[in-house]
Structures
1.
Amino acid sequence: MAAPNPVSESLSKKTPESAFTFLPRGAIIQEFSVAGLNIVQNFPEAQLYNDHNSAYFGETIGRTTNRITDAEIRNLNGKTYGLAKNSGKNSLHGGTSGWGKKEWKGPQALKRNGKEGMLFSYLSKDGEEGYPGTVECNCWYTAGLDQGKTVLEVEYEVEMVGDEVEETVVGVTNHSYFNLNPTAPTIEGTVATLGTAAYQEINQDGSATGKIHPLYHDPLIPSTPHTPFIFTSSTPNPDDCFVLDPQLAPSSIPIDTRTRPLRILATLYHPSTGLHLEVRSTEPAFQFYAGKNIDVPEVTTSKGLGVPARGPRAGICIEPSRYVDAAGREEWRNMVLLRKGQTWGSKSVYTAWKE
């Protein structure tokens, strides 16, 4: 069950129809409710995540995000590290049992940036899923109201706390699926915009080729940023990493992106509910995924209540991140390369409201 949540209680006092719930397992976002509607895909009980969360609903992804080609990192600490292969020949979302599958310490209630929030922490030991070095990740969730809109801030910090090696690689994001018409089985009718049309080219297995194209390959997603498009029952069907500044030298992206301004990654709106979502982040890229591979069976709670199956296009993922395979490609590695004494960091802000 979810731990007591002071953020939810604070929001309930101000707007009774808005609430958040977080779980220690994977520092998962279980509930993000606006106007009485939970806009994230979830399970009603923590135990169900243990057995059925193949889709990564709400998980904090780490020690790295997305895919690493051939599940291998070369020339790190002068060595080659083999990782867990859980996506064909590649490693996906930190491996077979990444951070989203682990029990985190917390929540610890606190004030951060003047807002009520909570802290989850996870200690990832040297060798876990093949990654070198012991690191600690702190995940802060803070929530509040801004001009009548519900705002969730997600902030990550990772530091090396062990002495086993001099360097490692890190990437962290949240894997929530959003559906702004939650009573519907799919995202059909959702109106979206993206902050960029540039994206990373990938192979058939999802690994990065190393190329970044300025315009998206599907004409159903506009070539001009911030131009609305609509999800039908089957199109468009993106599962790609979009890059905000394709002309920016990867070497200029800092290990702690919180020095960069928050920028709009994507917006969603559904006319049936009048709900809006805006996602901003300091991160240089984001995976935008229409959920084509969601395959979660119908399950039953401990009280015998049925939870409907979730299938393709049940939600949209917007995953703020570094580049796909940044850990595996030395020309991009600086943005994920964490050394002793450094801090990996990022911040993302989710703003939702009903018109």
2.
Amino acid sequence: MPQYVRSGYFFSPGMTPRAVLYVIAIIFSQYIQISVIRLLWSITASLVGPEIDQAAALLIEKPYLLNQLPYTFAVIVETLRLYPAASSTRQGEPGLDIISPDGRSCPTDGLLIWSNHFAIHRNEEFWQRPDEFLPQRWLAGKDDDLYNADKGAWRSFEHGPRNCIGQELAILELKPSLAITLRKFNVNSTYNKYNKIRARKSPKTVDGDRAYQILFGAAHPNEGFPCKVSLRT
């Protein structure tokens, strides 16, 4: 089973597997309080019961239960905020100018415009404490400092007319994947061992992050996130 999880989730090219990977990497990293893990486990257990092996069957029988996981959803979208799976581009056109914050007009004719989601998602203009993993920001009310009034600032599936038509499917896949995987397995990165084997000389971290993103067509975790997967006891 660990081998299946490793090959099925961690090395698949799709967006959903990468999102699952980053959720796991964040949750099991040293930077996240154990309270996040415990809360996810307790919420899922209260919904699908304490028997881990029966969770999948119950979710198949009663798929509406997935709509009763608001904190799990918050963890997913917060992960995609910090680690967007991709950015997007637009073709410039004559007469279409981008106005910079200081009022300059930037023509786009003949240019390819790149919407950098990573930068937008960590911009202090839109987010409080943008570099912190705070799922509670997605459950915050309007009076909370973490509340984000600009809904266009989260662009993991793009926004507006170009919004990804597969967004609902991706979230639907992520919820049961986390509900089952996080209760059944422990995942620990093995970057230290991997670096020794590879005699790595390039940067080991970016802003303290071992699983930082690299662009390879789309965004992927550094070195594919070498890890050890074990059954929870």
3.
Amino acid sequence: MAPPRTLHPTATGPAKPLVDAHQTPQPLVLYAGWFCPFGMYQTSPPWLLFSLYSHTPPQQTVQRVWLVLEEKQLPYQYIEVNPYAKPASLLRLNPRGLVPTLVTPAGRALYESSVVCEYLDDAYPSPRPLLPRNDDAYAKARCRLWMDYVGTRIVPAFHRFLQFQPTPEKGSLQGVRGEFLDTLRGFAGAMLEEEGGGKGSPWFAGGEEIGMVDLMLAPWVVRLWVFDRYKEGGLGVPAEGEEGDDEVWARWRMWREAVEGRRSVRETGSERE
């Protein structure tokens, strides 16, 4: 199958200089897929959108791993692959050809973004861990609970909202929007409930620095603009002072602004169109 014309064979926008700076061979190698701007939503037919978004797109899951590498300032090589013509080098490491695939210094491969991210945090605890250390097993478990919430609740609801095409069998756009907003509100509410959440620090549970839970959701948060651009009624999160605004949504806005302003998030992002 020929790749859709909307796929970019190289990084675009702010991500391009970062990709260009990580072409030298290194002990850690990140295999990533070609870039797929969300601006394709405007011009692609429904069948192609369903094909590309029926599962979690690789660009977001790659960005998760990329963010961890950047936050830890680890040396790595970034290799972009054509998802429609996967190179033999990738298939030898990972017969399923999935991205992200990380090659470790021992030459062994790992995939599944959350697994890779936790490996990097365990293998490279400096300059700082992104999850609580094992001496605080409860705090680490709580973070994993919310990482699971991101992967099993927020991300699927995001894509149901994104893919939605109105038919009598599928219900209403308002319904899928409401489902997605409920997941975001649950996440923001948890930040208020966790110890220290919402009391100065913008990060999950009031951490002093961005952590693993924040990074698991960041790649989808920076793509929320697509709903305001292409969905009737937009995303639907109330702005400050609008009807429906409260402390939970205020906490969400605080967190989203911090994520979107983070250097690692900005520099691993592609052009929208």
4.
Amino acid sequence: MSTINPPKALFFDVFGTVVDWRTTVSQTLSTQATFSLNSTTASIPASVRLFASTVSWPDFAQEWRDTYRAFTLAHSKRASSPSSSAKGKRPASSPYAPEANGASYASGAFKTVDQHHHDSLVQLLDAHHLTGLWTPAETHALSQIWHFLDPHPDSPPALHALGSCYPIYTLSNGNVSLLRDLSLHADLPWTRILSSEHFGAYKPNPGVYLGAAEALGLRPDQCAMVASHLDDLKAASRIGMQTVYVERVDEEDWMEDEVRDARAEAWVDMWVGVEERGCLEVARRLGAGVAGWNV
């Protein structure tokens, strides 16, 4: 990938790629637990206090994130069709409808990431014997922390620079309201928000990537997917999108040998190493200057 034949649209994964979910969620869980345990009005059973005093909130945050991955993967497989691997062709099962501006859904209920975050938090609290640490209302409010994740430091300046040269879009499994809140909280200047919610399926279902390109009136090869997860990029590559890998610490789910093989096979069009300042390096290689960052 180069400025000689650049993509006409950049799609960004958000969780982990653009925003730092791990730090924000871990710190918020710890802070809210301390607040609740020290509250003079909270009625918390002694057994819950005992378990809360020993829990590792970073580990709890990772478990919470893992449930999200399992949820989206399971939904993606259910929504897949036999024709979904055909490069450049949207599967017949894709619920995207251009006449509805991408807002139509597959038949049946579509569970949003917000709903999953709440339900899985309730289940995890129960599994860790922490039910009662927060009231139902407090638990619901806590499940909304994913709307207010802090960005990686490189993300806002890089996106502002890229946005002056390219249309930049989210292509995230987060629901629309979540992504809107994140864009305001983290100063993320998207040209437009596109979500898996628009397509009634979750990445890595090919219908999401194909539907996003179709929503912009572009071919998949005219678009680039930017992500910190190789499974996301592999799915995008299979339907013909260009791919940009932004390596982030502890974010990749693939094993080290799988990552090494992927780099050797060179199916990723742009590989930004963990030491290369993330999205700032993407901006530099695509010719978008970032004021004050010496890129």
